[in-house]
UniProtKB/TrEMBL annotation:
This is ABC transporter ATP-binding protein. Keywords: ATP-binding, Nucleotide-binding, Transport. One of its GO terms (molecular function) is ATP binding. The keyword RNA-binding does not apply. It comes from Plantactinospora alkalitolerans. Pfam families: ABC_tran. SUPFAM superfamilies: P-loop containing nucleoside triphosphate hydrolases. Residues 10-235 form the ABC transporter domain. Coiled coil: none annotated.
Amino acid sequence: MPHTDSTPVLRADGLTKRYGRRPALTDCHLDIPRGRVIGLVGPNGAGKSTLLQLACGLITPTSGTLEVLGSRPATNATQLARVAFVAQDTPVYAALTVADHLRMGARLNPSWDAGLATRRIGQIGLDPRQKAGRLSGGQRAQLALTLAVAKRPELLIFDEPAAALDPLARDGFLHNLMAFVAELGASALLSSHLLADVERVCDHLIVLAGSRVQVAGDVRDLLASHHRLVAPGGGPDRLPAGVEVDRLPAGIEVDRLPAGIEVIRVEQTDRGHSLVVRSDGPRPAGPWSVESLRLEELVLSYLSRAADVSAAGSRTMAGEAAR
């Protein structure tokens, strides 16, 4: 049965994690409702694994707060039982059989569902007598997924669990993941570099880059509020504040953009120039065509903006050091 508690599955307020002087996460704010399948995307070093480890209670914040299912992560055995974590290498014990793993799961988890575990092992065709070290990558991932869901958690957390799988094994893993989420009525948080996988299974999105949350929200709302404004041909030489003049989108002037428009990215294509913008109001009307974005385009726009900001900061620091 779905969980009806209205407490957010994840709430962060000023969440910051540093390792020495290096920031892994900086001033993150999140408020994610229950019942979502959350895609966490960003480049290497963005802070994705750090956020997942904080959510599991494996590490603690430097500053700020984080609540998972209404409580601080890993505060007690009850809280630990509500969250299941599958790491990137889908770890299992090579010397133990599949059946040994199920027995271990039953001993360690008070809400263990032996019937669910046995049924799913049969459905994916695993021999209970086979040692985990002799399973294929896809089979190990399915075993790790079974162990995670048989504890009947309210939140499933996955750190790139399908990254090393071939396309067929990845398809099977994602299919079973969605089946488990539906059966348990649980929320899921999935970190992935594969935007096609995120687009397939996730209905909520967090984009991390440069240790900061760039954008977060339900996928449907994000796609509805982001647009591409296209004006082909030559045009004026003015841009919204913060956009470089030498990357002028033709035909779009700052004083002709409606109020409440946030410029995310300036693009130049074979059709001319364009802006990727965010508008929480009506579709921006003006002397341009308005196009919808695919999820991949939205994500890449935010990652590109974060990379530009980082590069500009590096140039500024280099210039100050040279003085």
